[in-house]
Amino acid sequence: MSDKLLRDLLDPPALLDRCRALGVLGVITAEEDDTDEDFWGYRFLPTHGGHQGRRCPELAMYAQEYFFEVHFSEAGVLIAGYAEDSYSSFHSADEGDGIWRRFLDQTPEALKPCQDTFDPGGSPENTEDWFPYLTCLVWRTAGSDSWQSARVHTADGVVTSVCDQGYDVGLYQDLTAPSLDHPECMWAFEEQLEELRKSRPEGLAAVRQILELRPLTDELVRSINPGRSLADLAQSVAVQEYAKSAGRR
User: Fold this and answer.
1) Cβ count within 10 A of residue 227
2) Which of 52, 89, 131, 166 is least enclosed by beta carbons within 10 angstroms?
3) What value, to the nearest 5°, has the Cα angle with vertex 79 and ends 13 and 81?
């Protein structure tokens, strides 16, 4: 059993910075008619949900049959996700519906309110339907120096770390400070990055600068997506709170 994701994940402050950068890249690469309810890629929601009336930043990623959410709270960080390729590897027919309940029950009490704000596909009413399909559940409580994961026994008796599921297909690579030259880097932006590599190397350089939290400029935006401008995206970019992270660099 490998806990590579637990070792590779950024510390919470750096992870929050990374999530803001991914959110900005999601805004820049989005189609003009994308909405928060219907999108592909990343959205960073700085005030989504909220625990006991407090703000609860969240990064959401959706791509084909893969998705994950990263929830930040004063109590720590909770990451949950689903990878179609990994689902059958530990959600077997003999396990019924109980396996997901067993690992959700392992979530620290302080972070359980995060489960109430899981919002797959922008539809809170689908939350209960989503839980049975989780293939990743990882957390880090405030004050802890390491990431933890739920562990479950599969039908064949193997103890499985829930964080293993999906990492092999690069689903969480964007949360682990990857290099843009890594084949599994920027998994949710695979098509856009391929286009930049082929025809607009300046756009690839712009992606690097955003991941490095450099100040956002119109030139960076247009290098990645010539059809958009910083003025067009100003309101959406402001929502990502990218400037809070970039301003510390």
Assistant:
1) 9
2) 52
3) 145
Stated as kind and residue range, the H or E segment containing 77 is: strand 76-83
Distance separating alpha carbons of residues 178 and 43, to the nearest angstrom:
19
| Beta carbons of 60 and 22 less than 8 angstroms apart | no
CA 189 from centroid of its chain's CA atoms? 12
Instruction: Write b or e for each residue in 141-153: b if 16 or more Cβ atoms lie within 10 A of its Cβ, otherwise e.
Output: beeeeebbbbbbe
Look at residues 177, 144, 147, 182 and name the one whose alpha carbon lies nearest to residue 162: 147
What is the distance between the alpha carbons of residues 85 and 91, in angstroms, rounded to a whole number? 11
Judge whether 56 and 75 are in contact, CB under 8 Å. no
Place of tokens 């209960």: 128
- Residue corresponding to tokens 């059809």: 227
pTM over 0.70, yes/no: yes
- Residuewise pLDDT in 10s, the chain (249 residues): 357 788 889 999 999 999 999 999 989 988 764 545 556 788 888 765 544 445 578 888 887 777 888 999 889 999 888 776 665 455 543 444 556 677 778 889 988 888 766 655 444 444 455 566 677 788 999 999 999 988 776 666 655 555 555 555 567 888 887 667 665 566 677 778 888 888 888 998 999 899 999 999 999 999 999 999 999 999 888 888 888 777 665
Q: Which amino acid is at 151?
A: R
Per-domain residue ranges for the chain?
Answer: 4-246
> If you search the block for the tokens 């609860």, which residue do you land on?
56
